[in-house]
């Protein structure tokens, strides 16, 4: 009888991972109301789709993902409140985008929660806050940046500018928070180093989601003779800036991070005179069979375009961590993610242990009208798509860090 009891106990222990919980709750914290709600909804649909893709394959060792969405209303206070609500609902990993300010607030709230409530710890997967301090001076054991941070992105962009002789006079127009300030600072530093002949002819900062008419900013750029603007605009702000440039007939190149959402594409299609050059790990129309298949499935389900490979990347990373840890405990997942390398949907990637910075290739791609040659299909119902300009390997973008990570006791 003792042997039978011991055997039963061993079988139960072996099955614990697959059956201890039928679902693993993940939360999304982003603006789902207000001027950036359209971006937040795009993020939500992509995260739900990525989770559904994993669930359709049987989940993670039989465990299904459940997505809970929280509206942070583009507020740091609401972001922290959302983190607490998520923890109360049993969420073990939150995904946050919508800017570095929101990401920083969520990380701070997670740090406090995890120190006070070791039985309710939560991981933060950051897919939209690119402030280098989040993997530098403010780095956290519980935070994982699942995309390239500002300096890495600008380094890739500067290599493109180095080869672009038509870029001669540059203006900086950015949102007035940490990311926007850094997009300006790193732009000056890295573009200036790559192209000492480029002239920087002006700069401005503006409050996110508050400007209704960018015409005055466009007028200042034109007066300064700028042919290019380095802008960390996103969502409706980017669309309004492009519209103002187009309405004035201004021929302008925009160097930005990743702003190809519906409102931006509509504005580009109408503007005609504006070119948008972006940096990211993937772009619509890229030669990537796996992501092309995901895009087709997403568009069939949601009747809208597939923009964000980074949500597929983030959930794939979570899956790899759970599988390696053989556990759904956030602490064990975090440890499993450190120095994890694998071939992802965007290429060879690594999650660096020192600062929890994701290392992945970065592509520069530019908006371009359908011409039947370089671009054969318009994106998001417009007559514009994208062309690849250049690609930087993860290794070439690897940077030193200032992270002095405070790790949980014993790890």
What's this entry about, in short?
The protein has 411 residues and is α/β, with parallel strands linked by helices. It contains twelve helices and 15 strands.
Q: Bin the strand percentage.
A: 15-25%
Q: What is the domain total for the residues?
A: 2
| Unreliable segments of 5+ consecutive residues | 6-14, 16-20
Output the strand order for the largest sheet.
7-6-8-9-10-14-15
| Gyration radius from CA atoms, angstroms | 22 Å
Main pleated sheet: 7 strands, mixed
CATH topology of the largest domain: Rossmann fold
Order of helices and strands: HEHEHEHEEHEHEHEHEHEHHHEEEEE
Specify the overall morphology.
globular
Count of alpha/pi helices? 12
Structure description:
There is one protein chain. This protein is of the alpha/beta class. It has 2 domains: 2-148 and 289-359, Response regulator (Rossmann fold, 3-Layer(aba) Sandwich), CATH 3.40.50; 151-280, Rossmann fold. It is built from 12 helices and 15 strands. The protein has a 7-stranded mixed sheet with strand order 7-6-8-9-10-14-15, with helices on both faces. The chain has a 5-stranded parallel sheet with strand order 2-1-3-4-5, sandwiched between helices. The longest helix is centred in the first third of the chain and has 20 residues, at 37-56. The protein is globular, with a radius of gyration of 22 Å. Residues 6-14 and 16-20 have low confidence and may be disordered.
């Amino acid at each position: 009888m003792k042997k039978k009891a011991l055997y039963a106990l061993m079988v139960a222990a072996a099955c614990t991972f697959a059956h201890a919980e039928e679902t693993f709750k993940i939360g999304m914290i982003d603006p789902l109301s207000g001027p950036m709600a359209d971006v937040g909804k795009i993020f939500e649909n992509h995260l739900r789709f990525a989770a559904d893709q994993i669930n359709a394959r049987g989940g993670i060792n039989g465990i299904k993902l459940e997505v809970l969405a929280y509206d942070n209303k583009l507020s740091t206070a609401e972001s922290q409140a959302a983190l607490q609500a998520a923890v109360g609902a049993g969420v073990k990993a939150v995904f946050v985008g919508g800017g570095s300010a929101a990401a920083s607030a969520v990380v701070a709230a997670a740090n406090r929660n995890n120190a006070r409530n070791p039985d309710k710890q939560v991981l933060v997967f950051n897919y939209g806050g690119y402030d280098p301090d989040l993997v530098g001076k403010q780095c956290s054991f519980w935070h994982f940046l699942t995309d390239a941070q500002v300096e890495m992105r600008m380094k890739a962009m500067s290599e493109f500018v180095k080869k672009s002789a038509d870029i001669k006079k540059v203006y900086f127009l950015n949102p007035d928070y940490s990311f926007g300030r850094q997009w300006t600072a790193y732009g000056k530093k890295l573009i200036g180093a790559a192209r000492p002949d480029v002239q920087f002819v002006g700069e401005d900062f503006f409050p996110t989601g508050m400007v209704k008419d960018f015409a005055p900013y466009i007028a200042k750029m034109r007066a300064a003779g700028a042919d290019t603007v380095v802008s960390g605009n996103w969502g409706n702000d980017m669309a309004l800036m492009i519209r103002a440039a187009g309405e004035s007939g201004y021929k302008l190149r925009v160097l930005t991070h990743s702003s190809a959402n519906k409102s931006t594409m509509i504005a580009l299609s109408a503007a005609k005179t504006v070119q948008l050059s972006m940096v990211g790990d993937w772009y619509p129309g890229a030669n990537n069979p796996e992501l092309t298949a995901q895009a087709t499935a997403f568009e069939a389900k949601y009747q809208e375009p597939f923009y964000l490979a980074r949500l597929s990347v983030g959930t794939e990373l979570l899956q790899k961590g759970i599988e390696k840890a053989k556990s759904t405990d956030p602490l064990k997942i975090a440890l499993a993610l450190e120095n994890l390398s694998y071939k992802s949907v965007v290429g060879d990637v690594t999650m660096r242990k020192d600062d929890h910075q994701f290392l992945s290739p970065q592509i520069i791609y530019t908006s371009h009208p359908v011409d039947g040659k370089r671009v054969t299909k318009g994106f998001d119902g417009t007559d514009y798509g994208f062309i690849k300009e250049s690609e930087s390997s993860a290794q070439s973008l690897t940077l030193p860090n200032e992270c002095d990570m405070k790790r949980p006791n014993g790890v």
